[in-house]
């Protein structure tokens, strides 16, 4: 029997610094409230006659997701919504595993079996499983056994899904449907079409170097914010967040990032 260690992430921070700091989203609100109730008026103090205020506004216009080959940017406006979902969301194809794809293929076999058809061998022959799908963690022997059992009836559904969901889809071009008796041809075509609409997410394949902000080794998100006109990249201000741990985004993990030649930076004040 092998010993094992279970590691679980904790959302509870043992540090008390954040609670003691009692940060607020808008510190100027306190100052404005003090001014409203006259707390700035003291016996030995004077009230200002005139005040000159200069305000610089830097709207966020882009959210930049890191990419090994080239950066991927998404336009951002105040009406877009919170930045956190844009940063932490990942393409569904990046989250799918061989197990998920094989399970999707079995659901088509179940639909066909419900109308009295067994096309397992036909589908396995036409859409063979990639060899890499049968490899799992060497220490996960139970997982390897489960994958091999699943692979006995499963097939790779991606090519079939892409074909069925194409605008020029023609059921007559699917070789495995030619083995279906004419009396069940309509039911089989309907089963395949309904299955494809339900399992459309499994048609996507994540390309190499797909844009993502997640860094699995560090368990952090890495991204940047573009400030200024997106039509003038060299004039943009870049704020980098190389160590965002997830959840509510505050200003602490954001810092002036590397910029192209000629880019401006916000001065720390």
The gist of it:
By secondary structure, this protein is an alpha+beta fold. The protein has 2 domains: 104 residues, no CATH class; 109 residues, no CATH class. Helix content is 31%, strand content 11%.
Your description of this structure?
- Residues 243-269 are annotated as: Disordered.
- The chain folds into 2 domains: 49-90 and 208-269, no CATH class; 95-203, no CATH class.
- It has 9 helices and 6 strands.
- The protein has helices at residues 17-21, 28-36, 83-88, 92-95, 98-114, 120-126, 141-151, 158-164, 182-198, and strands at residues 60-65, 72-75, 214-215, 220-227, 237-244, 255-256.
- The protein is 31% helix and 11% strand.
- The longest helix has 17 residues, at 98-114.
- Strands 1, 2, 3, 4, 5 and 6 form a 6-stranded antiparallel sheet that branches.
- α5 packs antiparallel against α9 (182-198).
- By secondary structure, it is α+β, with helices and mostly antiparallel strands.
List keywords for this structure.
alpha+beta; 6-stranded antiparallel β-sheet; 9 helices; 31% helix; 11% strand
Which range best describes the helical content: under 10%, 10-25%, 25-40%, 40-55%, 55-70% or over 70%?
Answer: 25-40%
> Low-confidence stretches at least 5 residues in length (pLDDT < 50)?
260-269
Secondary-structure-derived class: alpha+beta
State the domain count: 2
């Amino acid at each position: 029997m092998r010993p094992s260690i279970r590691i679980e992430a904790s959302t509870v921070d043992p540090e008390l610094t954040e609670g003691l700091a009692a940060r607020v989203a808008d510190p100027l609100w306190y100052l404005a409230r003090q001014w409203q109730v006259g707390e700035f008026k003291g016996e030995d103090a004077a009230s200002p006659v005139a005040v000159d205020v200069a305000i610089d506004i830097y709207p966020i216009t882009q959210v930049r997701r890191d990419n090994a080959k080239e950066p991927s940017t998404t336009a951002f406006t105040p009406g877009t919504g919170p930045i956190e979902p844009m940063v932490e969301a990942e393409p569904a194809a990046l989250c799918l595993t061989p197990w998920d794809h094989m399970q999707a293929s079995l659901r088509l076999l179940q639909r066909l079996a419900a109308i009295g058809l067994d096309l397992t061998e036909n589908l396995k022959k036409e859409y063979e499983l990639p060899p890499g799908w049968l490899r799992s963690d060497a220490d996960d022997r139970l997982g390897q056994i489960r994958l091999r059992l699943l692979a006995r009836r499963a097939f790779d559904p991606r090519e079939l899904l892409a074909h069925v969901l194409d605008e020029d889809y023609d059921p007559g071009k699917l070789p495995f449907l030619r083995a279906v008796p004419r009396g069940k041809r309509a039911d089989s075509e309907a089963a395949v079409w309904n299955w494809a609409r339900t399992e459309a997410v499994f048609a996507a394949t994540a390309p190499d170097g797909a844009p993502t902000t997640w860094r699995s080794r560090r368990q952090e998100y890495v991204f940047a914010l573009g400030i200024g006109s997106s039509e003038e990249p060299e004039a943009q201000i870049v704020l980098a967040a190389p160590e965002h741990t997830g959840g509510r985004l505050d200003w602490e993990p954001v810092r002036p990032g590397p910029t192209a030649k000629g880019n401006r930076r916000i001065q720390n004040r």
